């Protein structure tokens, strides 16, 4: 999004993010940036004491910092917050505002007369919405997106351009879907006829449910269930070009980085973090709080377990064990 | 697809899938499901004797099973089939029917006057079709798809929304193309000018031919030939987010799972199965019937050979050999 | 592109590509092909002496070759060039011409009245262009593409169908963007609120700048900066389904093969070559001229260094070292 900046005083920002101010509350803030790129008017943040000095010497007009900055002499206003990075993210919400949307239905959109559009929706140019769909309050459907029959999208969602949502898919509230994503496509399931050797399509007639506060990256694809449901839990964040196969069950607060792929019927429990380009075989289960490093691979039917434990490699092992293997191999190679 | 269910009797289903009925042929079936999720009216299947009991105790109204169920006391109608999973897939075709399409050309579509549209085509909203294209009988072009000049698409194809087909590409009959796929894009070929160090585009003027009964996943990309042809053989099934480079020759009945990538000029012979996230270097050849596990990698110009032999790892080796390497490494790591 | 062939004489082609002719300059050329597929009228090339004989015996009407062919008896006209492959690529530019575009704005396109369109632009069917955008001379925007507000696209660019360009993105001149690509989507950045455990969006308000002569593959995604800029250097070539995260800095003349993924804030210096399915962790730096083989992986914050040095594996090592490890492992496995 190209965002517009509304000037705010340090006081206004501090109140919004619940920070304590040291210094001049009247200073006006007109932007946000990294410490390195700051210009006068910018708000910056530091969450590590050793970077505080750099921030104070920067061109920035104010600094969000942790309690570690409380006793320091400050050459510019400080906003002290328990979680400086989080306070900064929230300050951004206050300072930046998306350009005002032109609400309503663009005349070039094709909206089936049976579709229910709640108040405040934005249906952009060349959107297509099938019959008996339902679009919630203040939700935006970006230009060129195609929303199938009987789709239900909640309120305050942001569907970017050229997204395709297959019939019957359900999205909760405040869901963000980036451009080019495909939601609810057929799973990859065939039966081979032993007599002819040809593959026949196995039924892919299930559903896809995406809960509240999920964000889905550009050109990501999520398949519907074969006959049951594929589910993406509340607050889960999915990066670009991710593939999620049919019947996957993704818990709440899961993070999935770019180009990761889940085969069919994978279970990812809550608070799991998957790095980029991870691959997970069918029916595998990644239990609560596991972290799996980039390019890691999990075999079909395997279970990874351990809150806060990091796994890596293919087949994935606890990082320490994996690194020991790498080190042993390196020594062996040197010896020969 | 959201599908509508037409109620059928056990007798009707059994005749359609050529199964032998044990029990009450008059029972009405109104749905399909897994054994775990079955509700009354559902048809389920078991292809392993040890799951039969569970199926018979489920809420399902009838069970498709193999001959192993012939002598069992059955509390509900049994449909005995040689290939229960296949019979179930076919029963789904009988029980489920796609919602009736509104055939014809949506007024918002841009169809070049020189395009030939056969009887029964469905051209949805905002579709664009270039000059001298040909769309076969009963084929559907989904909303927002762009079909280039001189493209030829066969009969009974299903092109989902927001697909792009570059000029000159040919699709056979009964081809399914999921949303967001790109067919016939330029291959990745450049020549570096030794004098200036700059890359110049190598000609990408070949063709792409996709044979009958191929299915292509969402957001998959297949490049045209540089000057010859990229070919996808009959009955081949390709999952989401797959990349197929220029000049690849894919045989019949090949299965390619999600996020796999083939460089230029790769040959995949018939009945090969490639797992997800596999990468194959240019000019490599995977011979008939080879299976290559997820994340496996094949170097340029290599040949993998062996009907029914499974390979894994990078560089790919027969699974047994690969696993021996992993085990040796694990032992070595433990020793140190 | 389906291209039209304009017949040219050997003399005309030789002048255009600055080659020296041995033989009949008047021979007419009506196509290009590989030596294997040549038909009469075709131009072919050989850049290796050992293939010359085959080319001379082929059906082709003329052969581009290196100086090695100077003394040979030639049964057909030879065009001698210092860089035969480059000469062939340029000959293709002369012989092939894209079908004449129908310039202007298709009536179904939605172009904001404030948008500036330079002379000779082609805005195809159902394109959407937001306010205050600028489209340069002779640039084409393909059908169904959505160009956000304040986007600036240079001259002679070719944007294929169904591309999405987020607001504020800038493209230089002669940039090619293949179908389905997404440029300028939000980066993948969140802050976890320690109190609630929920992820909040970190500001993604930066820019994306793509310099002259870049080519971007089908369904590739490139994120905007978090608050600074993501930059793709001049002449860089990016294949299909590549992911480039926020704040990445890609130098000039870089080549990135299909399905490679760069996390946030990665630096790729000029003339780097990345194979397919490579994964690079955040804040890593790949220095000038490094080559990294397919499926290679680089850990966060790592630096790869060495002009012309090839790396491979995860974590990536110089190829020789990596191969030594593989060989040692193979020996170990055999011993046990």
Could you walk me through the main structural features you see in this protein, from its secondary elements to its overall organization?
- The structure is a homotrimer of 336-residue chains.
- Helix content of chain A is 13%, strand content 30%.
- Chain A is an alpha/beta fold and 336 residues long.
- Chain A has two domains: 4-97, MurE/MurF, N-terminal domain (Udp-n-acetylmuramoylalanyl-d-glutamate--2,6- Diaminopimelate Ligase, Chain: A, domain 1, 3-Layer(aba) Sandwich), CATH 3.40.1390; 104-321, UDP N-Acetylglucosamine Acyltransferase, domain 1, CATH 2.160.10.
- Chain A has a twelve-stranded mixed beta sheet with strand order 10-13-16-19-22-27-30-33-36-39-42-43.
- In chain A, α1 packs across α3.
- The longest helix of chain A is centred in the C-terminal third of the chain and has 17 residues, at 319-335.
- The model of chain A has no long low-confidence stretch (mean pLDDT 94).
- Chains A and C meet through α3 and α4 of A and β24, β25 and α4 of C.
Write a concise keyword list for the protein shown above:
homotrimer, 336 residues, alpha/beta, Udp-n-acetylmuramoylalanyl-d-glutamate--2,6- Diaminopimelate Ligase, Chain: A, domain 1, UDP N-Acetylglucosamine Acyltransferase, domain 1, 2 domains, twelve-stranded mixed β-sheet, ten-stranded parallel β-sheet, 4 helices, flat
| CATH class category name of the largest domain in chain A | Mainly Beta
What is the number of beta strands of chain A? 43
Largest sheet of chain A: 12 strands, mixed
* First and last CA, distance of chain A: 56 Å
The CATH superfamily name of the largest domain in chain A is Hexapeptide repeat proteins
What percent of residues of chain A are in strands? Answer: 25-35%
So how many helices of chain A? 4
Instruction: Indicate the multimeric state.
Output: homotrimer
The chain-level structural class of chain A is alpha/beta
As a whole number of angstroms, the C-alpha radius of gyration of chain A is 24 Å
């Amino acid at each position: 999004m190209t965002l517009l900046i509304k000037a705010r005083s340090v006081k206004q920002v501090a109140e919004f993010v619940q920070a304590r101010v040291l210094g001049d509350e009247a200073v006006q803030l007109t932007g946000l940036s990294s410490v390195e790129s700051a210009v006068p008017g910018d708000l910056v943040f530091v969450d590590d004491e050793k970077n505080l000095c750099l921030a104070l010497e920067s061109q920035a007009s104010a600094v969000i910092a942790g309690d570690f900055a409380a006793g320091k002499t400050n050459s510019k206003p400080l906003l002290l917050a328990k979680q400086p990075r989080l306070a900064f993210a929230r300050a951004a919400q206050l300072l930046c505002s998306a350009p005002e949307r032109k609400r309503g239905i663009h005349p070039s959109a094709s909206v089936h007369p049976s579709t229910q559009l709640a108040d405040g929706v934005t249906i952009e140019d060349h959107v297509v919405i099938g019959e008996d769909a339902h679009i919630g309050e203040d939700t935006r459907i970006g230009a060129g997106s195609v929303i199938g029959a009987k789709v239900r999208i909640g309120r305050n969602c942001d569907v970017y351009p050229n997204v395709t949502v297959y019939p019957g898919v359900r999205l909760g509230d405040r869901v963000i879907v980036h451009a080019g994503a495909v939601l609810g496509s057929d799973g990859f399931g065939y039966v081979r006829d032993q007599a002819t050797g040809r593959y026949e399509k196995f039924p892919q007639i299930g559903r896809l449910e995406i809960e509240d506060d999920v964000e889905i990256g550009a050109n990501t694809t999520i398949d519907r269930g074969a006959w049951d449901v594929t589910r993406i839990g509340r607050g889960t964040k999915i990066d670009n070009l991710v593939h999620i196969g049919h019947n996957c069950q993704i818990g709440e607060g899961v993070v999935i980085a770019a180009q990761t792929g889940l085969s069919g019927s994978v279970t990812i429990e809550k608070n799991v973090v998957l790095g980029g380009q991870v691959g997970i075989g069918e029916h595998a289960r990644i239990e609560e709080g596991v972290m799996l490093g980039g390019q890691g691979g999990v075999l079909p039917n395997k279970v990874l377990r351990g809150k806060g434990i990091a796994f890596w490699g293919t087949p994935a092992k606890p990082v320490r064990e994996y690194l020991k293997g790498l080190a042993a191999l390196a020594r062996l190679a040197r010896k020969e």
